[in-house]
Specification:
Order of helices and strands: HEEEHHEE
Distance between the termini: 49 Å
Helix content: 25-40%
Strand content: 35-45%
CATH topology: Trna Endonuclease, Chain: A, domain 1
Shape: globular
Radius of gyration: 15 Å
Largest sheet: 5 strands, mixed
Number of domains: 1
Length: 125
């Protein structure tokens, strides 16, 4: 390649840039809805949480997905991904002074805009 990067590295960089852009759009959408973004790209418990935001006293763990259709995005947050998100959220919560009420949301970035699916899944006991 002209910039000296291997094709795989260039593809990974492009995917990372698209992911970051999707997260930026989701953050802007959440803030317009009155959420307060607490953190982004939090690594904890062996996983990563794209966005942690507060809606009033409720803490929302938000997974961001870029897809053509909302249903495709929701299907992509499968049971394995949900377990990783719950594990990461649990680790993050363990470091907080108090245990707030929580919710797991999915922000879907589509060509038509952003759809926030509140309570997209629950932490299994």
């Amino acid at each position: 390649m002209a910039d000296g990067r291997a094709p795989r590295a260039a593809a990974r960089t492009s995917t990372t840039a698209k992911g970051r852009a999707g997260e930026d759009l989701a953050v802007a959408h959440l803030e317009r809805q009155g959420y307060v973004v607490v953190a982004r790209n939090v690594r904890a418990g062996g996983g990563e949480i794209d966005i942690i935001a507060r809606e009033g006293t409720l803490v929302c763990f938000v997974e961001v997905r870029r897809r053509a259709r909302v249903l495709d995005a929701l299907v992509s947050v499968d049971a394995k991904k949900q377990r990783r998100l719950v594990r990461a959220a649990t680790a993050w919560l363990a470091r907080q002074r108090e245990l707030p009420r929580c919710r797991f949301d999915v922000a879907v970035v589509t060509p038509a805009g952003i759809e926030l699916v509140r309570g997209a899944f629950e932490a299994a006991p």
